[in-house]
Design goal:
Layout lengths: L5 H14 L4 E4 L2 E5 L4 E7 L2 E7 L4 E12 L2 E7 L6 E7 L7 H22 L3 E7 L12 E8 L3 E8 L5 H5 L1 H14 L10 E10 L4 H7 L8 E8 L4 E4 L8 E2 L6 H7 L1 H8 L4 H4 L2 E7 L2 E6 L2 E10 L6 E7 L6 E2 L5 H14 L9 H4 L2 H16 L3 E14 L2 E11 L4 E6 L7 H16 L8 H4 L14 E7 L7 H5 L7 E7 L9 E6 L5
Parallel strand pairs: 10-11, 11-12, 22-23, 23-24
Antiparallel strand pairs: 1-2, 1-7, 3-4, 4-5, 5-6, 6-7, 8-9, 9-10, 12-13, 14-20, 15-16, 16-17, 17-18, 18-19, 20-21, 21-22, 24-25
Length: 524
């Protein structure tokens, strides 16, 4: 078998990363980069396939000489610059890398600890029915331990807990599972003596120091639905402490900028990138300013090139830095690789259009961005109550150490803020992720120490008298991608959270229409 060419290596790596944009990069079994936050560049130069990864913590450059697909990963044979000794990198899928026996052992130990702690802290109640076995029919995975506290008479509390050995996603998603567990306890007899019980409370138990997300969400649950209790468990000492739900949400917001000024300054770069695309695809390209100095070019919601204004080393003038590539892939455009860039962008245009091949990775990549692109274009028709003059896309919302991005933020004709949160795949946590954005926008709307609100203090919605009403939350997804439990979760939210669940037709790429809408004001 002949040796792979640099072109074939680059194509295989690009295809794997397009299929798995959240992959991990490992060297000698140690994770170096998480591609949900890191970036990479794939370049052909001097007959070699060069792969570079970088993040805020580190930078890595390797020449790739061979690839070997394996279960759950792509193994790359590599060579460091200036070294002839081969090495390897693994591009691995995000998953729990513990063995099955280790996971089961840790979960059994945690369950025993949890039952002892609950017996100590609630001496007048009986812990009952605790287990972590998966029950996929009712959306219960094995990462969370569920059970109940039974009190004398009929009172009972539903209990959901998660240990520190589980993933951060499982810990942050504990409230979603807890709400479904409370609903399940109320509608099914669970454990011994559970029939005819009144489940008046949900107790959520998270690892010590990891309660922030759950506390923020729990503060905005319906107060009449149950009593809500959050506890933090120190697994080393067995100490169980209550968590305050009224903590402040710390937020900052970058200042608004003039996108027209940026477009004018980077127009030569726009022209150069468009010249690499086939003529028929250029009309579908969107210009999406990201900051006062950076512009992304998108094709049906997929960023495929960027133009940055960078300071010149030889003058006070700015120079244009142009990169091309989809997803986290960012390759600087140079005269030497312009032909390669043209080939990639023609392949992108051939794959990413409404009638494209559903199996092609470039067609499937960033589906939520594609829906968002369609919504931006059809906003006046689908949502006539919204003001199309103001539509902020991918707006950064900074909360403490977490960096989150609002899909779309706009305002209706009465001046009330409206959040549009989009999902392309079935997601059990969709309602509470939408709640996260609602909480932050509400906090920015009522931020103390600003002239009215944080948005207009930073230049957003100029000339609009923003309403002081809490924002509306529109949750939008294709109809067959809405999880059956999403509405149950939405009904658990505080009455001040004005939500609407909007289902799009499955043919949304060619015909954007709503199949049904459900609102918080509707009767249950």
């Amino acid at each position: 078998m002949s040796d792979p060419t640099p072109e074939s290596l680059a194509e295989a790596i690009a295809s794997f990363l397009a299929d798995h944009p959240d992959a991990l990069v490992l060297e000698d079994g140690l994770p170096l980069f998480d591609l949900r936050t890191a970036r990479y560049s794939l370049t052909l130069a001097h007959g070699r396939c060069l792969l570079q990864f970088w993040s805020d913590e580190r930078n890595l450059v390797r020449t790739v000489t061979a690839i070997q697909p394996r279960s759950g990963l792509l193994r790359l044979t590599t060579r460091r610059m200036g070294s002839s000794k081969p090495g390897s990198l693994d591009l691995a899928l995000q998953r729990d890398r513990r063995t099955a026996s280790t996971r089961e052992s840790q979960r059994r130990q945690y369950q025993r600890l949890l039952e002892r702690v609950l017996q100590q802290h609630f001496p007048h109640a009986t812990p009952d029915g605790f287990r972590s076995a998966a029950d996929l029919e009712h959306s219960f995975g094995p990462a969370c331990t569920r059970g109940q506290l039974l009190f004398a008479g009929s009172p009972a509390h539903a209990v959901i807990a998660v240990g520190s050995h589980e993933s951060r996603a499982a810990i942050d998603g504990i409230l979603t599972v807890g709400l479904l567990w409370l609903h399940h306890c109320r509608h099914h007899a669970v454990g011994r003596a559970a029939r005819h019980r009144h489940y008046g409370a949900l107790r959520v138990i998270v690892p010590h120091g990891m309660a922030q997300t759950t506390a923020r969400r729990m503060r905005w649950l319906h107060p009449d639905l149950a009593a809500w209790h959050l506890h933090a468990l120190d697994e080393s000492t067995g100490q169980l402490l209550p968590v305050d739900l009224d903590a402040n949400v710390e937020l900052t917001l970058p200042h608004a900028f003039d996108p027209a000024l940026l477009l004018e300054r980077v127009q030569p770069g726009i022209d150069r990138i468009l010249s690499l695309l086939p003529a028929h695809a250029r009309a579908a390209v969107e210009l999406r300013p990201q900051s006062p100095t950076e512009l992304h070019l998108q094709l049906h919601g997929l960023p495929f090139a960027s133009i940055c204004l960078a300071a010149s080393q030889h003058s006070f003038q700015h120079q244009l830095e142009i990169t091309f590539g989809a997803g986290a892939h960012a390759t600087p455009l140079t005269p030497e690789n312009e032909a390669f860039g043209r080939t990639l962008l023609h392949a992108l245009a051939a794959a990413r259009h409404p009638a494209g091949n559903l199996r092609h990775p470039l067609f499937r990549l960033r589906t939520e961005g594609w829906i968002e692109s369609r919504l931006r274009a059809a906003l006046p028709d689908l949502f006539p109550s919204l003001d199309p003059r103001f539509l902020y896309s991918q707006l950064p919302a900074l909360a403490a150490a977490n960096r989150d991005i609002l899909d779309l933020l706009t305002v209706d004709h009465s001046g009330r803020l409206v959040i549009l949160e989009i999902k392309a795949a079935e997601d059990l946590d969709f309602p509470l992720q939408g709640l996260d954005y609602w909480i932050r926008v509400q906090a920015m709307l009522a931020a103390p120490g600003t002239s009215g609100n944080l948005f207009q203090a930073n230049g957003y919605f100029p000339g609009i008298a923003l309403s002081t009403q809490p924002p509306r939350l529109l949750l939008i997804a294709p109809s067959l991608r809405i999880h059956p439990a999403n509405e149950t979760l939405l009904r658990s939210l505080h009455p001040q959270v004005d939500w609407e669940l909007i289902a799009l037709g499955e043919d949304w790429r060619t015909s954007l229409r709503t199949v049904f809408r459900k609102r918080s004001s509707d009767r249950s």
